[in-house]
Structure formats: structure tokens, C-alpha cells
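User: Non-homologous end joining protein Ku, Sporolactobacillus mangiferae:
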Amino acid sequence: MRTMWKGSIQFGLVYIPIKLYTATENKDIRLRMLHKDCMAPINYTRTCSKCGKAVENDGIIKGYEYAPGQFVAISEEELSDLQDHADKHIEIINFVKLSEIDPIYYEKAYFIGPDSGNGLRAFSLLKQAIQDTDKIGIANIIIRSKQHLAAIRSYQNGMLLETLYYPDEVRGISEVPGISDLAPEQEPKELKIANQLIDQLTTAFNPTNYKDDYRMKLKKLIDEKAAGMPARQETGPVLSKPNVVDLLSALEASVKETKPKRRTAARKKKTV
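Assistant: Predicted structure for Non-homologous end joining protein Ku:
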């Protein structure tokens, strides 16, 4: 597993050398853009929108569009001066309960690993203390020149760092069209059946029960075409939709459809 960040965690006056490793990976199958006649990848060149000339990397600078068509240039030196040069240091600011953080704030997860043998004791101590108190540490971290809010928590036999969105990066739900038109009260019978449907579909979460069906079908299609096999039409079970005319009928039909089947033992008839 490749190290993507190296630094330390400050826990009070204790400094713990650590490394970060990406905890998740995107397994989307990426398709390339090809020239239909040559079946070769399409190349894209960087061109100036004003003069139309191709621009090499040494002729490109960064800038911000503060008004339509108006830009201010920002140099790499100026960006560097704005950063905290202790960017390889994570100071835990507070400890909070995990339940107090709404999942909407979570962005990306990283495994935290010890960086040296000398820091193993302190690393293990922090992990155990966080686990015993059922708390998570809130800290700031700079990754690839961008500052992130982060949550540090115990995870299995190690620790996990999860970057969080800042409050001003999370949009208000009041901006959703039609959200203010929701009925404040629900029909009691409809709500009762909706709760019953939730109960019937409730189970313990097991991530291995879920899979990316589309990615698996696409991978199979690619393998077949690469092997020169004719593409086969994917067919699945046809789901029949009940003929329902209102919300209550739809809920009742859903409860009936998802009701668990009970096995009944066959009764033996006694003969005289």
C-alpha cells in the first residue's frame, strides 16, 4: 500500500509520527474516447481561448476569474506564502462523539499507520484511548496544498482519518425546490403501513451483500468483446408492477410483496 501523506499527530504534548494510506478506491470502468475510423485514442491539446495557439506547460499560470472575462494571476510563491509551513503536522483540536457528526460532512477516508518503531507506543495509546472513550478527534490537515477538517477515530485494530467538508461547503436543504411544500402531518394509516414496510426490510448491515451490477455487466461485455465473442443481451427477471392507484394501495402492496415467507410444516392426517 503506497504512502500518500507523512507527518505527525499532536495529542496534547505528545507527537506521534504517522503515515496516511488511501482507504478506498474507485473501481469505475473508464471508457476512452476513440477515433471511429482508426480506433485510436483522441488526444486533447491545451489551447488559448483568445489566440487559439497551443500552450506548453511553461506558458501556463494560475489565476482566478473575479468577474466575467477578468482574471487576476496568482503565483506559486504567493500560494506557498499563504500556507501553514507546518503542513505535515496534525493537531487534534477537540474530541467529540461520533454520533454528533452528520454523515453529509464526510468526504474521504484514509488509514493511519505508524511511521516508526519509536512511535508505536504512543500510536497504540491514542488508538486505545479513543476507542475506550468512544470519541473521535477533530483536527486540521493539509493534503496536496488544500486544508481539510478531519476526524480521527478508532477503526478495527488501527485508526482512520476522514476528511470532512467545512460547514460553508455543505448546502442548506432549504435550497431544494419544493422542500417547503412537504405536508407537516401524515395520514395515520399510511404512516403505520410505511413503518411496517421499513420493519420488514430492516436487517443488519453487511456490505458484502451489495454489489455494483452495472460494473460487473460492463466488465463482462468488455471481456467478451476483447476475446472476439459476440456480445450477448443481458436479461434479468422482469419485475411486475402492481396496479395501484394511490399511495395507500402502493404501501399495502409493498408490504405484501416484502412480507417474509414462513415455512409451515406439513400436517399428517391421522387415519382411524
